[in-house]
Amino acid sequence: MTDPRPTALHQEHERLGASFTDFGGWDMPLRYGSELAEHRAVRETAGLFDLSHMGELWIEGPDAGAFLNTALVGDLARIGVGKAKYSLIVDERGGIIDDLIGYRLAEHRYLVVPNAGNTAAVAAAFAERGAGFDVAVRDATAATSLIAVQGPASAAILHELIGGGSGLANRHALVDELAYYAIAETSLADVQLLLARTGYTGEDGFELYVPNACAREVWSALLAAGEPHGLVAAGLAARDSLRLEAGMPLYGNELSTEVTPFDAGLGPVVSFEKEETFVGRAALEAAKAAGPALALVGLSGAGRRAPRAGYPIFAGDREIGRVTSGQPSPTLGVPIALALVDPAFTAPGTALEVDLRGRREPFEVVALPFYRRSR
């Protein structure tokens, strides 16, 4: 068994007093102090995350768009330069190998970002599915750091640092005009980088792709610029509670090769209109016609105890599903969960029970997301 890999920012995390966890084979900061305080900072001001465990796969060549449209379920060939698209890679049975984001940087150049523990599997699938295409796949994960600023103050923090011309107005425009699910090349602290606006917390925010050699410089500059705005370093524990409140699926919990996009409520991500015949298409066409075997729902409880992944769910005496993620919601003050259940029990307001270690507690199906920012 190999030790988890440190990111280029490991010493910065140690300096800030982080506790660490092995996540996807990487030694990642779990929290720096109070995960509740880190969660609330992202909701109220801003949090700074090291996400360097995520993968970075560059897809380049004349057939890049056609290749991705064959390898993935979405239509990435039609997105504009500077835009991003959430997509999935599935196996021949339609099971989800990973969910990922694809960015188009030029006509024939894309950046695909898979989840940490799935990068090798996605790279291997790309190598297999790339046969016959004039395309090169390059794994830049080991050389790339990914830093995210998330929260209401994230734009104000970047205003102070992002380049985009000599004037203040130009710097502000570059940040303010970057649309949701878009990407641009720019500079911060004299470091050339990629700035994206996607996010995984339910708040506005930005992701910065930087060379490892410059990661500590960028991290320190962001912390310094963000201090007057209430920016704090935040770990994976806060990231998990934030994404759960936002109703966003996590691979390994809500998503797996045993789950199809239609089970997970991700049917709209699948493009049956594109010209290319993508891997898993026939299985997903059959799955769509048959209807989902499971359905992803949100659950909210009135008590204090929160369910955890794997806890069974009952409608009367019938077991109708299992919790995939669950914990107390710091923002809402109630226990919440995501669950895969029988599709007959998905209507908001449906009363269910979750077996919390031998004791059933009442929960109600609610519309997702649990939390939606008002600004």
From TrEMBL:
Q: Which UniProt keywords apply?
A: Aminotransferase, Transferase
Catalytic activity reads: N(6)-[(R)-S(8)-aminomethyldihydrolipoyl]-L-lysyl-[protein] + (6S)-5,6,7,8-tetrahydrofolate = N(6)-[(R)-dihydrolipoyl]-L-lysyl-[protein] + (6R)-5,10-methylene-5,6,7,8-tetrahydrofolate + NH4(+)
Boundaries of every Aminomethyltransferase C-terminal domain copy: 296-371
What's the Enzyme Commission number for this chain? 2.1.2.10
Report any one BP term from Gene Ontology. Answer: glycine decarboxylation via glycine cleavage system
Q: GO molecular function of the protein, one example?
A: aminomethyltransferase activity
What are the annotated GO cellular component locations?
A: cytosol; glycine cleavage complex
UniProt keyword annotation of Transferase present:
yes
Q: Which residue ranges does UniProt annotate as crossing the membrane?
A: none
> Residues that bind substrate, according to the entry?
207
Every copy of the GCVT N-terminal domain together lies at 9-274
What's the top EC group for this one? transferase
Q: What does this protein do?
A: The glycine cleavage system catalyzes the degradation of glycine.
Q: How does it assemble?
A: The glycine cleavage system is composed of four proteins: P, T, L and H.
Entry's family note = Belongs to the GcvT family.
This chain belongs to the protein called: Aminomethyltransferase
Name the gene: gcvT
